[in-house]
Amino acid sequence: MIELQHISKWITIGGIRTFILKDINLTIKEGEFISIMGPSGSGKSTLLNILGMLDEQSEGEYFFMDNPVHTLKEKQRSQLYKQYIGFVFQAYHLIDELTVYENIETPLIYQNIKSSERQAIVSDTLDRFNIVGKKDLFPTQLSGGQQQLVGIARALVAKPKLLLADEPTGNLNSKQGEEIMELFSELNKKDGVTIIQVTHSEKNASYGSHIINLLDGRIDNIN
């Protein structure tokens, strides 16, 4: 499903190149559940953003479902993202001007799903996450944990083939966090959704079939 060949990412300050990622080679098969771990500043979120086509590598090749992402125009990458990828952001990235209902509905609009069908899917999703009572509220009226749940609901509403999650339980209490990890596990095992999560939690990482450890922008080891 995913193949990274010699992916590097750097920033240049005052003519000096500072590497965020260095020579990453990685193959991820459809249906895998991967946890990415490593200390702060090791390049975890940058790697996730490149996989999610929200950031571009400085060099190297990225193939996603046989599509050469590194040669695609922005519009083509955006189409791939909307069609196949759900992303749970650490900082929520909800749209403040939209209600909870409208935030969750947005990915379905991108996929040109009919209004009546969208309504049914969003209602099911609100129910699944126990946030029916919040559907008419705006993100600023929600707690951090509630915003995180809405972000996860939005990422899953269009049934993505690939789910990318950056510290998905970081703002949830332990019970909510466990429920989300169980949900991810079920999506992976029953629905075959490929999941890649960045986490600091050993417990959350253990839900994955493999753990990739990053250190100083390089893959340190894969378990």
Features:
single chain; 223 residues; alpha/beta; Rossmann fold; 6-stranded mixed β-sheet; 4-stranded antiparallel β-sheet; 10 strands; 35% helix; 28% strand; globular
Q: Would you write up a description of this structure?
A:
The chain has 223 residues and is an alpha/beta fold. It has one domain (2-222): P-loop containing nucleotide triphosphate hydrolases (Rossmann fold, 3-Layer(aba) Sandwich), CATH 3.40.50.300. It is 35% helix and 28% strand. Helix 3 packs across helix 4 (115-128) and helix 3 (100-110) packs parallel to helix 5. The mean pLDDT is 95.
Q: Measure the end-to-end span.
A: 19 Å
Q: Which architecture name does CATH use? A: 3-Layer(aba) Sandwich
Class computed from helices, strands and strand pairing: alpha/beta
- The strand count comes to 10
Shape: globular
Total of domains: 1
CATH class division: Alpha Beta
In percent, how helical is the residue content? 25-40%
Please name the CATH topology.
Answer: Rossmann fold
Question: Could you give a quick summary of the protein structure above?
Answer:
With 223 residues, the protein is an alpha/beta fold. It is built from seven helices and ten strands.
